[in-house]
Amino acid sequence: MSNILLTALVASLLFASSAEAQGASDQAFLEFQVERTVRIRQGAKAVYPEKLRSTGIEGEVLVQFVVNEGGVAQMHTFKVLKANDPAFAEAVKKAVSNTSFYPAELDGKKVKQLVQQPYRFQASR
User: Fold this and answer.
1) pTM value?
2) For residue 64, which of 12, 113, 21, 98 has the smallest C-alpha distance?
3) H/E/C letters for each residue in the chain?
């Protein structure tokens, strides 16, 4: 009976330490927490939606997403925080998904960073 309890205790401790280690690697840091912030490696421009451009409607979009250690935006974390038209938000989402980044760094290691990025759509004058 005591062997079973000891085995269960060891297994639960191993599981807990494994979960802690995995949680640390899943952490996304904020801009002020990293030594080197995320930078755009190769950007895709957000395309001004034609129906909004032709009517002269301008837009602002603020989005948030996590860039992983490989410099890829994790689109399952993508959130639109502010947008004056859903078409602008969709154009930004497509641009972010087609952009590659240099990942953030902390203590010489590549880490995930939570990014907030504004976009503006201005009609030609």
Assistant:
1) 0.78
2) 113
3) CHHHHHHHHHHHHHHHHHHHHHHHHCCEECHHHCCECCEEEECCCCCCCHHHHHCCCCEEEEEEEEECCCCEEEEEEEEEEEECCHHHHHHHHHHHHCCEEECEEECCEEEEEEEEEEEEECCCC
pLDDT for res 7:
37
Asked if residue 73 lies in contact with residue 65, where contact means CB atoms within 8 angstroms, the answer is yes
> pLDDT digits over 44-86, tens only?
999 999 999 999 999 999 999 999 999 999 999 999 999 999 9
Question: What domains can you pick out in the chain, each with its CATH number?
Answer: 28-121 (3.30.2420.10)
Encode pLDDT of 87-108 as tens digits: 999 999 999 999 999 999 999 9
CA 31, CA 35: separation in Å to the nearest integer?
8
Token pair for residue 100?
């590659």
